[in-house]
């Protein structure tokens, strides 16, 4: 029997023969998905490896040679494990032949229900909004870094080279307005692959420069098993707060659960989506962990306890300036793609809800075919055009008014890491598999969940302290020094 078709902004009801349905549509009546292991891995790498990979040398410097790598490996395991649990929940009640759930909220609704659905939505979409604002700021910092690098090369390392980031935020926003007109996640594969290549490129450049610096003649920096030294590099309280922040940076650097279900919803039906997603998660997390360990440890060896927050935009390196420029351009290009990976689920959520609420509105539901030179026919939806443009503009304005928003981002990440990456996947796994209460499996899953809650609270405390410190030195509309 042919599946039912639902009318919304992306899918239109059509009368088709049974054979055509099987050929062009999936079992839920939606356009046949074409995602593969490669595209899913690219989406994951784009979401996970951000410019934060270059700040891991700072994180290792706070924790030291023992705790730093140990925390990295611990969170890579936790992230991979919980992502496999979440992948099995894409379909319900069974992971192979159950009903599809298109969003994280749908998954929670199918397995847990109740007020937990609302809590999931608040955590997920607040995180997505925060990430897109943070990416606007971070991308502009990378663009400014290119200008500053050229300035230092021309006028010397002692030059002030003060440059405003606001014009670059506007440029980034204009690019995002154009890319945001891509209808949905299914059309983003090429952008994620490009962004993943960029992330490998700038991480490799940072790694190569660190190796060259560490191996340089006369290179001597201070490192230790416990990281920065109390009374020498930092005070006792600073050591605690910065260690908390470092743990938080590492934990949240791995979090991609906010978009995992949306990524899985792009995959072909065969082989089973859960199996492909687990392999993609393994490939993505393994790749990012390798880069994280290399960049973190070798970066620490190169800069020691004085490691900068980001040695490409924070100018841990000055020369060769052209290579620094190229690396920062790669960061900006990567963040262009990463912004889309994180905002597309939000776009889809708002548009689906509006379509349900005002299904008779032509402004919301109608598509208009427009011939685009060199690109063929593009279907324009007026609501999508106006709403997505407005969203990008608002995030850019917030980024300009509050350029210290990255400090808020750590707090938002602290609030969303535990529920989205740990709590909900574990609770849904227990419900799906009907694991008996107080059984061995139930107990150790609960121990893992509570341990991660403590870590998340600790990281939140560190983020709040960092935010308070940033506010003390905040000067509205100031240029970068």
Automatic annotation (TrEMBL):
Compartments reported by the entry: Cell membrane
Gene Ontology terms: cellular component: plasma membrane
InterPro entries xrefs: AA_transpt_TM (IPR013057)
Residues annotated as domain Amino acid transporter transmembrane: 34-468
Record-linked Pfam families: Aa_trans
Transmembrane segments: 37-60, 66-90, 163-182, 188-212, 280-301, 321-342, 385-402, 408-426, 447-468
Statement: the UniProt record of this protein carries the keyword Transmembrane helix: yes
Keyword Cell membrane: yes
Keywords for the protein's UniProt record, in alphabetical order: Amino-acid transport, Cell membrane, Membrane, Symport, Transmembrane, Transmembrane helix, Transport
Protein's name in the database: Amino acid permease 6
